[in-house]
Each structure stands twice: as structure tokens, then as C-alpha cells.
């Protein structure tokens, strides 16, 4: 018995000083501290197998200790404290554990060589101290033996049966759900107030005498018209009174009461004026020039358009309106803004990033951030403009709370992508939608006509286009036609081929047709000149072939026809292309050349499904009824030969040009 007792005692005590490395598999509710000396005496009575657990051999312990001091340079004192701390924990665990490891058997012989009481006196003294402290504790502080038994039972069951303890059901905490990226990002969109409006909402501008400065009304009526467009009506009815009252109540914090504004309105519906009027109304009386409104647009052509609109309606005010001219050097513009800070700045995102990084101006006084053609802006990184802008806003604005700047997000094809909208940090957003069930609405007076071309005739598509252009000119003399193709190369090729066919008189056509094509092989300045000539050409007999660079926002109200020579790739692109005509409540025609069943299916199943049309507007129809269409598609053989020769001539000219 003696040896058992000694053994057991030895193991426990060596455990006490060893830093056993294994973690106990079972958590311990260890309440009243146990007295090892008691166990040693009990061991003989209960005849429980001696606990052999995690006792590192004294010899190894000494090595471990020297390793620590050698390698890590920890002081003896520190490593001692560490190992003592571990030993306490291990000791607690060891008493509860019934596992055995062969490693410990090998340890026993080494540890029995030295007298026990001298080596572990510090640990045993500490236990005596804790025992005396516990004696001093009131009885209530001690846990009854039986709960300990329960713990032990549970733990022992746990070790042997290895069945997991039944856990309580997980509480799905809503706040935790919101932390899931896939949900919280859509919160802003989900919680936004949706305000539907009808396309019949038209009012006289004089109706807004209470909300708009009279100079402003006078400018609008003289430069635009006396009547509002629906999107302007709904915004002037809902947002303008709120803006005026919040601004007069608290000029510093008015933005928060108003919240952010998102508008999904069809092309040519007057969105520019819809956001320009509130800006001028609120900022018209400011005295010191500071950047108070930034209007972001995706293309340079749009900058000029928005600038013209703002300049017209802000006449008579001292507002400084400036546009970033990409043709100017950045340094030049930087100095200009440093010395003459604009109140309203119209700029592309990339250029804004440049100026923010050069500190051309600060955003301390910014009150409005307008995104025109917002889906385009949010779809392209433009030098990571979003992060750079919001970083500078966070730095410059003294009022750090959400809603310190009113964001006005406008598009005819507003994105519903919550992730993209999330990056705008919307505050109390209101979304203005037409009353249609579908996402994109087409202008009320837009007529869509489809030309179904059999695949066998696809080779003669350019010739068929020329015939259609001829027909349009014949039927409406003042026509201005914008032809969309899919790429720069297509624009160059088609333009050259049409001009060659006109020159060779392939069809009896009025060759005064002003024909030009926009593409990136000529300079931006030349492109802009072509657009200007196209927009201002007196004889109105003009055809412009372009890529989608002309599809966004370009406001040339005299365009009578848009021809999708190559189909757009998305319904958004379709809306923007067709939206170059039928603007500002004028009539317009969009003609779609659909080659083969594939393109016909694509148009009906991909492009048409997202579109809504005014109930009393036009529905898509065939460009020609069948008989006339077959006449159009019929190409006499001699004409086919001349057409093929024309192509060969062009190809040889191109090859010569390349040589
Ligand atoms: N109240 C109005 N009365 C008459 N003309 C207007 C009015 N509001 C805007 N316009 C004109 O309507 C045309 C289209 O306006 P605007 O370019 O703002 O449309 P939009 O909705 O921005 O189109 P897009 O989506 O293609 O950019 C412009 O020529 C503008 O001058």
C-alpha cells in the first residue's frame, strides 16, 4: 500500500510541478479546492486506479525550463511563474481525470528518486494557504460535494460515452442577421420610401411661386417651358418644400431632414432640370464661394449639357458654376479651382479623384452630391472614385453623422444592385418611380419598329440599311437619324461602305445625305465637332453612325430616328439608345434590324421583358407589313453584283491604305 500511496502521491505532486502540455478533454467545474494529501490517504480506501496524468519527468521538466530560459531569454522567475500557473491548472484537472498515458508510467521511476517534500514545498505551501483561506470562507461560498459529484458524473460520462452534451437551440438574433453581408447591404434599399408618380403629372411652373425664387421661375419659363415634366412635378411637390423648410430651420443640418433621393425616370424626361432647380433654389443666396454641390456625370459630352442647363436657370444669382474641362490640363484646372472655388461643380468621377488628391478644393461645405446616369457611374470604378470621395468627405466634413450630404441619384435605368447603392451610404432614401411594374419605362411617344431580316440576307444588311435610310428621307424630309453599331470598327466600316454605295449610286438616293461616323480613330475634338454638326445641321438631312458613346444622356431633341443596326447587349443600353429620340414629349422612332430567329428571340426575351410602355403610348410593331418587307428584302441580281464589287473595292482600298 505504501508504494501505491507513494506512487499516487508522487504522480500528483510531480504533476503539480510539471507543465503537462496536453489539454484536458473535459471542462471542469471545480469548486472547493481539494487537498492532495487527502487523496493520497483516500487512494488506499477507494482503490480507484491511481491517476497517472500528464506528469512530465522531473528531468525533462528541468530541460524544458532551461530551453525556455536559453531560447526565449525569459527570466527564470517568469518561466517559473508560468510553469507554476500551468501546474495549478493541471493539478486541478488531474484529480478529475481518469485517463492514463504510458508517458506517465515512464515518468514515475525518475521522480521517485528524490525526497518529495523538499522539491515541492512551494506548491504544497500554497495549497495549505488556499486551504486555510477556504476555511475562512463562509459555508455558502462552498459548493456542496454532491454538485461536484454531478459534475464529475457528467464529465466522466462525457469522457467515456463521447456523446455530445445537448446544446440549447441557437438564437437567431436579428442584429446578428444584419451583420451578414448579403443582407445588411440591401437594407438601405429595402427600407427606402418608394414614391410612385404618374406620367400625367404636369403643372405650371407658376404653381411653385411659394417654393421657387421668382427669378428662377422666370429663367425656367424663358429657357425651357411654362410646364413641368412629371418627374419635375413629383420632386417639386415632395422634396422642394422639405428642402426649403429644413434649410430655413437649420442651414447646417438641413440635409439630414431631407434624406437622399433616387430617381428612375425615362430618357428625355427632364431629369437634369429636376435636380438642377432644387440646387439653385437652395444655394442661390450663399455669399462665400465654396464647393456646395458636385454633379458627377460619366462622359465629357454630358458635362457641357448639364453646365448649359445650370447656367441658364441660375442667371441673376451670384452662384459660381464651373465644369471640369478635360481638355484643360489638370494643373491649370487645379490652380483655377484653388483661386476661384465654384459653388456647383460639374465633373467626371476620374477627374474628381485627381482634384481631391491634389487638394484643389475641400468638401467641408458640400451639401449636395448628384449622380447623373448613376448606374453607369456605379458600374465603373473610374479610379475608385466612390471610396476616394467618401474618404475625403469623412475627413473634411465636421458633421460626421450619416445624412450630412444629400445624395441625388438619377438614371433612366437605376440600378437595383443593393451592393452598389450600399456604397453610396444612403440615409433615409426616397425612391421615385413611374407607376409601371417593370424596371425601365420608355418615352411615351417612342415608336419601336422591327425589321426581321432572314439570315440568308445578312450579307446585304448595309444595303438594306441604305434602302431604309432612303425610305425615311423620302417620307420625312426633316429627318435626323442616329445609327448605333456595336464597335468602333463597325462604325468605320459601315460609314465607309455607305459612303461608297452613295457615291456609286447603288440606289437612287438623295446624295445630300450628310453621312458621318463617330469612332475612336479620330480625335475627341473631331468627334465633338461631328456631333455638333449633326445636332445643328440646318438641312436636317443627316445621318450619324455611332457607338454607344452617344447613347447616354446626349440631348439632341431633333433626332427623329434611332436605328439599332447592331442590337444592344442589354435592356439598359436599349433604353438609353432609343432614348436619344422621342425626348421632351416629342415623337420619335426606333428601328431594330433583327437578323435571323436568334436576334428576334433576343429582342423579345431579353430586351423587351424589362421594358414598360405607356398604356396610351405605342406598342412595338413591324417596320413594314409583309408585302412591303419582301420588296425591301428583294435585291435584284445586278444590284447584288454592284454591291459585292463595292465591298471588294473598299477592301482593296483598305489593303492599299495598310501597305
Ligand atoms: N419642363 C420642361 N419643359 C420643356 N422642356 C424641358 C423641360 N425639362 C426638360 N426639358 C428639355 O427636355 C430635354 C431632355 O431633358 P434631359 O436631358 O434633362 O432629360 P433626361 O431625363 O436627363 O434624359 P436622359 O435620361 O437621356 O439623360 C432637354 O432638351 C431639356 O431642355
Automatic annotation (TrEMBL):
Annotated Gene3D superfamilies: P-loop containing nucleotide triphosphate hydrolases
InterPro entries xref list: DEAD/DEAH_box_helicase_dom (IPR011545), Helicase_ATP-bd (IPR014001), Helicase_C-like (IPR001650), P-loop_NTPase (IPR027417), RNA-helicase_DEAD-box_CS (IPR000629)
Ranges for region Disordered: 40-119, 132-177
EC number(s) stated in the UniProt entry for this protein: 3.6.4.13
First-level EC class: hydrolase
Matches recorded under CDD domains: DEADc_DDX51, SF2_C_DEAD
Compositionally biased intervals (Polar residues): 104-119
A GO CC annotation given for this chain: intracellular organelle lumen
Location of the Helicase C-terminal domain: 464-658
Residue spans of biased composition, Acidic residues class: 69-94
SUPFAM superfamilies: P-loop containing nucleoside triphosphate hydrolases (SSF52540)
Any matching Pfam family: Helicase_C
Catalytic activity: ATP + H2O = ADP + phosphate + H(+)
Any one GO molecular-function label of the UniProt entry: hydrolase activity
Every Helicase ATP-binding domain range: 252-432
Keywords from the named record: ATP-binding, Helicase, Hydrolase, Nucleotide-binding, RNA-binding
Family to which the UniProt record says this protein belongs: Belongs to the DEAD box helicase family.
Functional description taken from the UniProt entry: RNA helicase.
Domain notes: The Q motif is unique to and characteristic of the DEAD box family of RNA helicases and controls ATP binding and hydrolysis.
Stated name of the protein: ATP-dependent RNA helicase
Lineage: Eukaryota, Fungi, Dikarya, Ascomycota, Saccharomycotina
Amino acid at each position: 500500500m505504501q508504494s501505491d500511496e507513494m506512487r499516487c502521491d508522487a504522480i500528483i505532486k510531480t504533476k503539480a510541478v510539471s507543465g503537462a502540455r496536453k489539454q484536458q478533454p473535459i471542462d471542469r467545474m471545480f469548486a472547493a479546492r481539494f487537498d492532495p494529501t487527502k487523496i493520497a490517504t483516500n487512494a488506499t480506501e477507494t482503490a480507484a486506479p491511481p491517476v497517472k496524468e500528464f506528469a512530465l519527468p522531473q528531468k525533462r521538466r528541468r530541460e524544458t525550463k532551461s530551453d525556455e530560459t536559453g531560447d526565449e531569454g525569459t527570466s527564470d522567475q517568469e518561466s517559473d511563474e508560468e510553469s507554476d500557473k500551468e501546474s495549478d491548472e493541471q493539478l486541478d484537472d488531474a484529480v478529475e481525470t481518469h485517463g492514463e498515458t504510458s508517458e506517465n508510467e515512464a515518468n514515475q521511476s525518475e521522480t521517485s528518486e528524490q525526497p518529495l517534500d523538499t522539491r515541492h514545498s512551494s506548491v504544497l505551501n500554497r495549497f495549505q494557504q488556499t486551504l486555510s483561506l477556504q476555511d475562512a470562507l463562509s459555508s455558502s461560498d462552498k459548493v456542496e460535494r454532491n454538485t461536484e459529484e454531478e459534475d464529475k458524473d457528467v464529465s466522466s460520462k462525457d469522457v467515456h460515452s463521447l456523446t455530445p452534451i445537448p446544446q440549447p437551440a441557437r438564437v437567431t438574433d436579428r442584429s446578428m442577421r444584419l451583420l451578414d453581408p448579403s443582407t445588411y447591404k440591401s437594407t438601405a434599399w429595402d427600407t427606402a420610401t418608394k414614391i410612385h408618380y404618374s406620367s400625367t403629372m404636369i403643372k405650371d411652373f407658376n404653381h411653385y411661386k411659394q417654393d421657387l425664387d421668382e427669378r428662377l421661375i422666370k429663367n425656367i419659363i424663358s429657357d425651357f417651358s411654362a410646364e413641368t415634366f412629371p418627374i419635375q412635378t413629383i420632386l417639386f411637390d415632395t422634396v422642394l418644400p422639405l428642402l426649403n423648410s429644413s434649410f430655413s430651420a437649420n442651414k447646417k443640418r438641413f440635409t439630414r431632414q431631407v434624406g437622399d433621393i433616387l430617381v428612375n425616370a425615362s430618357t428625355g424626361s427632364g431629369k437634369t432640370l429636376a435636380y438642377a432647380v432644387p440646387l439653385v433654389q437652395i444655394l442661390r443666396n450663399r455669399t462665400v464661394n465654396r464647393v456646395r454641390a458636385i454633379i458627377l456625370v460619366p462622359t465629357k459630352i454630358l458635362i457641357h449639357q448639364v453646365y448649359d442647363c445650370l447656367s441658364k436657370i441660375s442667371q441673376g444669382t451670384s452662384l459660381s458654376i464651373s465644369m471640369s474641362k478635360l481638355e484643360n490640363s489638370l494643373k491649370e484646372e487645379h490652380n483655377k479651382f484653388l483661386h476661384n472655388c465654384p459653388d456647383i461643380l460639374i465633373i467626371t468621377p476620374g477627374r474628381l479623384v485627381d482634384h481631391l488628391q491634389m487638394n484643389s478644393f475641400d468638401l467641408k461645405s458640400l451639401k449636395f452630391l448628384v449622380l447623373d446616369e448613376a448606374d453607369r457611374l456605379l458600374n465603373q470604378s473610374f479610379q475608385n472614385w466612390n471610396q476616394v470621395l467618401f474618404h475625403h468627405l469623412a475627413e473634411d466634413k465636421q458633421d460626421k453623422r450619416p445624412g450630412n450630404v444629400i445624395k441625388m441619384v438619377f438614371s433612366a435605368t437605376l440600378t437595383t444592385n443593393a451592393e452598389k447603392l450600399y456604397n453610396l451610404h444612403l440615409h433615409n432614401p426616397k425612391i421615385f418611380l413611374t407607376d409601371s411594374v417593370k424596371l425601365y419605362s420608355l418615352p411615351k411617344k417612342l415608336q419601336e419598329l422591327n425589321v426581321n431580316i432572314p439570315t440568308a440576307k445578312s450579307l446585304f444588311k448595309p444595303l438594306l440599311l441604305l434602302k431604309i435610310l432612303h425610305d425615311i428621307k423620302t417620307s420625312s424630309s426633316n429627318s435626323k437619324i442616329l445609327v448605333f453599331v456595336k464597335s468602333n470598327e463597325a462604325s468605320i466600316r459601315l460609314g465607309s461602305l455607305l459612303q461608297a454605295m452613295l457615291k456609286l449610286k447603288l440606289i437612287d438616293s438623295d446624295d445630300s445625305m450628310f453621312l458621318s461616323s463617330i469612332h475612336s480613330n479620330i480625335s475627341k475634338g473631331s468627334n465633338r465637332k461631328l456631333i455638333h454638326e449633326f445636332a445643328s445641321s440646318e438641312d436636317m438631312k443627316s445621318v450619324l453612325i455611332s457607338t454607344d458613346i452617344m447613347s447616354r444622356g446626349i440631348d439632341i431633341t431633333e433626332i427623329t430616328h434611332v436605328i439599332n443596326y447592331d442590337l444592344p447587349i442589354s435592356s439598359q443600353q436599349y433604353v438609353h439608345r432609343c432614348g436619344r429620340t422621342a425626348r421632351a414629349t416629342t415623337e420619335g422612332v426606333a428601328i431594330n434590324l433583327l437578323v435571323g430567329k436568334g436576334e428576334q428571340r433576343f429582342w423579345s426575351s431579353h430586351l423587351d421583358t424589362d421594358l414598360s410602355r405607356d398604356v396610351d403610348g405605342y406598342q412595338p410593331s413591324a417596320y413594314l407589313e409583309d408585302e412591303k418587307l419582301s420588296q425591301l428584302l428583294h435585291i435584284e441580281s445586278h444590284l447584288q453584283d454592284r454591291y459585292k464589287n463595292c465591298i471588294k473595292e473598299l477592301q482593296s482600298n483598305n489593303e492599299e491604305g495598310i501597305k
